[in-house]
Amino acid sequence: MSDTVNRSGLTVDARLADLVETQVLTPLGRDVSAFWDGFAALLADYAPRNRALLAKRDELQAQIDAWHTQRRGKPIDQSEYQAFLREIGYLVPEPADFTIGTENVDSEIATMAGPQLVVPILNARFLLNAANARWGSLYDAFYGTDAVDAPPAKPGGYDKDRGDAVIARARTFLDETVPLASGSWSDLSGKDAVKLKDESQYIGETEKGLLFKNNGLHIEVVFDPESPIGRDDKAGIADVICEAALTTICDCEDSVAAVDAEDKHLAYTNWLGLIRGDLEESFEKGGKTLTRKLAGNKTYTDGEGQSHSLPGRSLLFVRNVGHLMTNPAILLEDRSEIPEGIMDAVFTSAIGALDVEGHAKYGNSGHGSIYIVKPKMHGPEECAFTNDLFDAVEDLLGLPRNTIKVGVMDEERRTSANLGACIEAVKDRVVFINTGFLDRTGDEIHTSMQAGPMVRKGEMKSSAWLQAYEKRNVAIGLKHGLAGRAQIGKGMWAAPDLMGQMMIEKIGHLKAGANTAWVPSPTAATLHALHYHECDVFHEQKGLGEIPPLDDLLTIPLAQGTNWSEDELREELDNNAQGLLGYVVRWIDQGVGCSKVPDINDVGLMEDRATLRISSQHMANWLLHGVVTEDQVMDSLRRMAAKVDAQNAGDPFYEPLVGNEDHPAFQAAKDLVFKGVEQPSGYTEPLLHHWRQVKKAG
């Protein structure tokens, strides 16, 4: 550990102590000694409770493992299975009818529907790009992606043919979304000729354009006859700007490699800069130094001549880590590491209090709320712990009750099976539930690891449990009153280069009742925003409501026989091994927790730690049940190491895997598979943190 200071019996990294004392507590007018005394008391109460919850996870898993081991090879009778799960406390009784009571929720979460970004908190440039993705150029998004059905832009400057196709597609969007009283936007002669079919869609005039609204989202049509694009346009239209990423999750968890005090200091410093409004990042591009800052608000004048402004930035959540990991940044009185989730709750909330109490340049929440996403909670007991913890943090910081809001990620099987009770445990502060295929599949495999070999990974997407999981999440959320008060979200579109396909498929998330869904980039957010103009989510939600039965959710995706051919086995292993190595090598060697990683077919996928959990657990499951051998796994890892080396040949910071099997990255990949059965809930964090610390230590 680097330089430390003693604070109320806690051994605290000196940089972290200085950050919170001088840049957070002092501007807030809080007593520094009282804060540390209160923090130490909070830890004395909550750290043992945290440990007890993790022990409960292990105890339940051991009982489930034993049950499956005794019955291995026999069909699973759902009534017997569920009776067992109730007996051990894995399943709890459904709560009586209730409606969430969350108050002071910003409209971006409660009453609007639109895209959501998730961005690694360690990367200031990405954070600024995401925060500024509230507004996006539709022309740029169409021109630079395959979302327009036209030949790609020819190199060497502006391609007019491509540009014409982009403009035509944007005009079609305007005709469909804000239709004119007569004729098409393509025939428009100029700004003064704009007369809408529905005048209520007109909001006002901006500096260079007209502002409209549809399904709660704004569209700005920019008229600038002097600009290079507007000059050649009959109407003088230079761009169409869409309100896009309504919300952004600044991620301390799966998309970052944060293993020590140095990493946590950077995470909290970046969060502080975002909340305060002064985060900046300079970088080189095209031989020039560019500096990125947060965008200001968008101003307009309404039809009565009154001035107004709209937020120029995405509303920010911060995702804390789950209950599992500890961190050496702070040591408790017994010299054990602090539970990282508790540290995140206190530090990110203290920083968020600067916004609540008016110490922010722009302001994040207009309703005085702090928005925290809490991942990887197992069941209502752990949700209740988070609720109590947030109560204690509010008391520590002198904040009104339920200032801290919570987003519950439905990505663990015990949470899915008890979702109503989980929501009830946080019913006065919940603002978000969502689903996530990768982590949820990882836990599906690990929970039933001893039951038998699982289906191939690709088959999981059509399995009964997954269909039930996605539908139950929305239906249970609607049953308990989330519509109009909270977000119901869906997972990531992982392929940032396949925007054309995203435009075809991702509208399905809206039709399933989700009023937000994750996208991998600001460009993707601009394009995905078009889906929310096409589909009124809140109207769709009214037609939903039937909750699929628990039997479907708890149907374990076991393979019917294991007579796969040698080619099929090799294909499955290679797919898992390549994804594993491609991600691990960046995490361990470079500390990159989220990046575009080529898959086995060289398609770039935006991956975070969840992809490791599903791949490593799947390989561990097949190894456990003798579907594949250790030799086959090692053969696959070695061959895929060569492929990953080739895929990263152009990266000057890349350290090859071939001939380097003692290297921490290859060792981590091996451990994730061969020690996969014994990892808590199949999580990858303990092994990744160990090998990253080995790497950082040189």
Automatic annotation (TrEMBL):
One of the record's GO cellular component terms: cytosol
GO BP terms, alphabetized: glyoxylate catabolic process; glyoxylate cycle; tricarboxylic acid cycle
Record has Coiled coil as a keyword: no
InterPro entries attached to this UniProt entry: Malate_synth_C_sf, Malate_synth_sf, Malate_synthase_TIM, Malate_synthG, MS_C, MS_N, MS_N_TIM-barrel_dom, MSG_insertion
Limits of the Malate synthase G alpha-beta insertion domain: 158-195
UniProt-annotated catalytic positions: 319 (proton acceptor), 608 (proton donor)
Keywords in alphabetical order: Cytoplasm, Glyoxylate bypass, Magnesium, Metal-binding, Oxidation, Transferase, Tricarboxylic acid cycle
Record-listed E.C. numbers: 2.3.3.9
Lineage: superkingdom: Bacteria
Chain ranges of the Malate synthase TIM barrel domain: 316-544
Main location per the UniProt record: cytoplasm
Reaction(s) catalysed (UniProt annotation): glyoxylate + acetyl-CoA + H2O = (S)-malate + CoA + H(+)
Protein residues bound to glyoxylate: 319, 411, 436-439
Function in brief: Involved in the glycolate utilization. Catalyzes the condensation and subsequent hydrolysis of acetyl-coenzyme A (acetyl-CoA) and glyoxylate to form malate and CoA.
HAMAP family: Malate_synth_G (MF_00641)
Record-stated family: Belongs to the malate synthase family. GlcB subfamily.
Protein name: Malate synthase G
Native source organism of the sequence: Altererythrobacter xiamenensis
Gene: glcB
